[in-house]
Amino acid sequence: MDYKYIESLVKLAKEKDIEAQEILVEEFKPIIYGLTKKVFAPGYEREDLISESYKILFNCIAKYDTSKHRFVAYSINAIKNNFKYILRKSTKRDDHEGLLSGDISTDLESLLKPEECPYEKKESDIIDAQLIKYVFKGLNKDELELVNLVVFEEHTVREYAAFKNLNYSTAVKKKKSALDKMK
């Protein structure tokens, strides 16, 4: 993708040039299709997410400051943020329908302080919650805590070992065991 070319198209599109807008849509098509493959939101089909992405793209064109020269990054971030909003909205709405199973979410939430819930910080990581439920099904509380700290909160195994007063090698074995159970 030629960024200077995109910038020139954005300038033309801001002046309501229909042809430039169509070319921008074609230029962003692979990016939008790639991003929508990674998102699963209940109540939304892939075509809905693609449509939302194009709507955000045109909104970005209208609001973009051409002196910044960063339209591609600006628009991709806006599209990703919109996906996060959609996920947050659909997660809150469809919680009772099994999107987030009560038993796995309560297990993880009980291990964390309320202000550090990873699902609020990393909603884009929630793509298929039923798969997550299946993966975590065989883990006990200690293994859930280990996986949560190391994977979701991005702490190191050494930090986990210090937190639990364990030898580092024991913590590594617990991590390997937990990850093997998740396979």
What does this structure look like?
- The structure is a single chain.
- This protein is an all-alpha fold.
- It folds into two domains: 3-95, RNA polymerase sigma factor, region 2, helix turn helix motif (Rna Polymerase Sigma Factor, Chain: A, Orthogonal Bundle), CATH 1.10.1740; 100-182, Arc Repressor Mutant, subunit A, CATH 1.10.10.
- Helix content is 71%, strand content 0%.
- The protein is elongated, with a radius of gyration of 21 Å.
- Residues 98-103 and 116-124 have low confidence and may be disordered.
- Mean pLDDT across all amino acids: 78
How many discrete domains?
2
Count of DSSP helices? 10
Given the C-alpha coordinates, what overall shape results? Answer: elongated
Structural class: mainly alpha
CATH level-4 homologous superfamily of the largest domain: RNA polymerase sigma factor, region 2, helix turn helix motif
CATH top level of the largest domain? Mainly Alpha
The span between the termini is 38 Å
Proportion in β-strands:
under 5%
User: Would you tell me which CATH topology of the largest domain applies?
Assistant: Rna Polymerase Sigma Factor, Chain: A
The portion of residues assigned to helices is: over 70%
| Largest sheet composition | none
CATH level-two architecture of the largest domain:
Orthogonal Bundle
Estimated radius of gyration: 21 Å
Low-confidence stretches: 98-103, 116-124
Overall strand count: 0
Order of helices and strands: HHHHHHHHHH
